[in-house]
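Title: Prediction job returns without error message
Component: structure pipeline
Severity: low
Priority: P3
Assignee: unassigned

Description:
Job completed but the reporter wants confirmation the result is attached to the right record. Sequence as submitted:
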Amino acid sequence: KFLSRGQTLRLNAFFITLFAATVPATAADYPVKSVRVVVPFPPGGAVDLYARMLQPRMMEALGQQVVIDNRSGAGGMIGSDMVARAAPDGYTLLVTSSSTHSIAPHLTRKPLYDPLKDFAPVIEIASAPNVLVVHPSLPVKTVKDLIDLAKSRPGQINYGSNGAGTLSHLTGELFKLQTHTNLVHIPYKGGPPAVIDLVAGQVSGLFTAIPTVLTQIRANRLRAIAVTGLKPVDVIKDVPPVAVTIPGFESSQWWAMFAPPATAQEIVDRLNAEVSRIDRKSTRLNSSHLGISYAV
């Protein structure tokens, strides 16, 4: 049965509309609607805080709403996988850390994604060291104190992490390896849940990003005993590097923005350019000189 002329026109219009909806926007008209930035960790952690520092500046630069969407779980791989499978139109982006792209996929038997093939890298944003914090009730004030205590109580001192396979976890394992101590690992679904339990005394220590625990350090709810970079950080300048006690010990992380694979290069270039133009001086002030080295 043949279609009438009117039915044919309506059908053609339908397919034209459908085709237009599936074709990625170009730099000339991008963006024409709000942009979602997926953060694969809970609110309040370093990745989330950094994404929210960028949010208002991205809104100003792009002229559209920028919505932060926290999708935590599996050491950040769940949220990252969402972006890997999203439409390559520039409206779903990922702000994440080295934990999801340099570490987690290589520690998983069946990773959800390939960090090299399943993302279009937009820009490396920054890098920074972590800090080792302990509950004030733990009778340690230095790295040496912690090593001595752990050796006197093998298997009785634990430490939390941002999740299995994250930099927080591997930094703790590196510490154990180099100090020959038996600390028990307690994984969490991100830094903030680990911090809550640490403040409550449910775990003894934690390696995590400085922004995640700075308020608790200043309020004396947590004790900072070392940073994992090779030099002190301005905001906690009296806290020495772990390397003072363990020569060569270093653990730093980076933050970066990614888009889904096959995103048009024009859109990637536009995002790269806009994030690069963001006022780094004002972002640095907002981050309180947290030892961040800016890549943009």
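Comment from assignee: result matches the submitted record. Residues 1 and 209 are 67 Å apart (CA to CA).
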